[in-house]
C-alpha cells in the first residue's frame, strides 16, 4: 500500500515536535525541517521525494558551514539511525531557521 503520494507540490507542514506551521521556502525549494526547532522527519530518500518508509523524527545533531550551500543541518534519524545533511534556510526572508539554534549547533562536533 502506498503511504505517500508524490504530488510535486511544494507545501508547508506543521512541525510534529513544536507545532510550528512551516511555510514553503520563498525561493521555491521544499522546506525539509522545522525553522523553529530544526527537527525533521525521515520521509525522503532523496530530498523531496517522500520515498522513505521510515517516518521517524530526525534530530538536528550539528550544523556546519558548507562552501556552496551556506549552512547545512546534520540530522540523525531517531528511528533507523541514518545521518543526513540538509541545507539550512538561514536566509529565507519569510521564515528563516532559528539563528541562535543554528549557531549553538555549529559549536557542537559533528557525529
Ligand atoms: Zn519544530
Ligand atoms: Zn529513519
Percent of sequence in beta strands: 25-35%
Helical segment tally?
1
What ranges have pLDDT less than 50 throughout 5 or more consecutive residues? none
Oligomeric state of this protein: single chain
Order of strands, widest sheet: 3-4-5-6
Count the beta strands. Answer: 6
What's the end-to-end separation, in Å?
35 Å
Order of helices and strands: EEEEEEH
Structural class of the secondary structure composition? Answer: mainly beta
Q: How many strands, which pairing sense, and closed or not: the largest β-sheet?
A: 4 strands, antiparallel
* Radius of gyration based on Cα positions: 13 Å
Bound molecule kinds, no repeats: zinc ion
The total domain count is 1
Helix content: under 10%
Query: Kindly state the mean pLDDT as a whole number?
Result: 87
Shape: globular
List strands and helices in order, with pairings:
Blueprint: E1 13-14, E2 21-22, E3 40-41, E4 57-66, E5 70-77, E6 83-87, H1 99-106
Antiparallel strand pairs: 1-2, 3-4, 4-5, 5-6
The structure holds zinc ion (2 copies).
One zinc ion is lined by residues 15, 17-18, 20, 34, 36-37, 39.
Your description of this structure?
The protein has 111 residues and is mainly beta. The chain has one domain. The chain has 1 helix and 6 strands. The strands form 2 sheets. A 4-stranded antiparallel sheet has the order 3-4-5-6, covered by helices on one side. Strands 1-2 form a two-stranded antiparallel sheet. It is globular. Bound molecules: zinc ion (2 copies). One zinc ion binds at residues 42, 54, 56, 77, 79-80, 82.
Amino acid at each position: 500500500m502506498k503511504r505517500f503520494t508524490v504530488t510535486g507540490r511544494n507545501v508547508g507542514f506543521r512541525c510534529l515536535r513544536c507545532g510550528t506551521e512551516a511555510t514553503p521556502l520563498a525561493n521555491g525549494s521544499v522546506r525539509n525541517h522545522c525553522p523553529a526547532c530544526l527537527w525533521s522527519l525521515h520521509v525522503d530518500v532523496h530530498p523531496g521525494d517522500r520515498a522513505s518508509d521510515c517516518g521517524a523524527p530526525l534530530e538536528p545533531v550539528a550544523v556546519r558551514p558548507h562552501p556552496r550551500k551556506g549552512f547545512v543541518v546534520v540530522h540523525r534519524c531517531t528511528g533507523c539511525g541514518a545521518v543526513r545533511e540538509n541545507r539550512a534556510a538561514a536566509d529565507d526572508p519569510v521564515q528563516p531557521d532559528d539563528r541562535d539554534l543554528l549557531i549553538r549547533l555549529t559549536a557542537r562536533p559533528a557525529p
